[in-house]
Amino acid sequence: MSIDAEYYLSVIRDIPVIIKQISDNIIEIQSDARVINSVLIADYIKSYFSFEIDANLIFQDDFRRLNPELYSLLTSYFSLRILRQDPYETMISFMCAQGIGMHLIRKQIGMLKKNYGNKISITLSGKEVILHSFPTPERLAAVDPLVLSSCTNNNRIRAKNIVLAAQGVADGKIDLQALSDPAIPLAELRSTLCKNPGIGYKIADCIALFGLGRFDAFPIDTHVRQYLGKWFNSRTALRSLTPANYLILDAEARTLLNPELAGYGGHILFHCWRKEIKKLHSF
User: pTM value?
Assistant: First the structure.
């Protein structure tokens, strides 16, 4: 939640925090808690904002040599960070987000939190601000999908799939902790996630990238397809995004970027494309 030009308020692992950006690599955190998820808050936040990732590891010498103009354009976006978010929250959020714009996505997630999360009070500049935590798996698992559809733009199928996913996490059938093992091959991880209704390749890769710390996962949507076609002359990007073409594009992306950080690089390319080429302003 953005309060003004200086501060953002968020709930991270049920801990309310006030965030102020000082520079590209320095942020100020205010919180009554000393630890988040049993880790000292300073150490947790460094990992949460993935401060250890250097853009020079993503866009290596060959990329810079072959794409000098594009690389120059991208440098303005190197301060972008992929947050290491809670995997369950990430899964539900991306299941909500299929095929809709950022404004509606934020609205839907806000409704989920307000209707089914816990209310949390935090004080900023002497004023009380009310936040809401993300609803627990058990809470969402018990919601009637018809009722939940008010939070999914009246999409009942999507609401049903979200309830099923929450039930899977609640009863242990979807073991996100086990899936966070970096030794699991990405194809196996994607295949496991895709066994759940409402999760296809793109959402599985988003869960992996943003929720499971798999910076090698490379989610592909319309914008990604467009920049692969325009900037990298991919013929596959001109075709419809079938599951087969998705995997071909995924493989192509790994020849352009450091394979271990392909998703991180894709995230920077994605936002550069949206803002510089498509002239979109929202993130």
Answer: 0.93
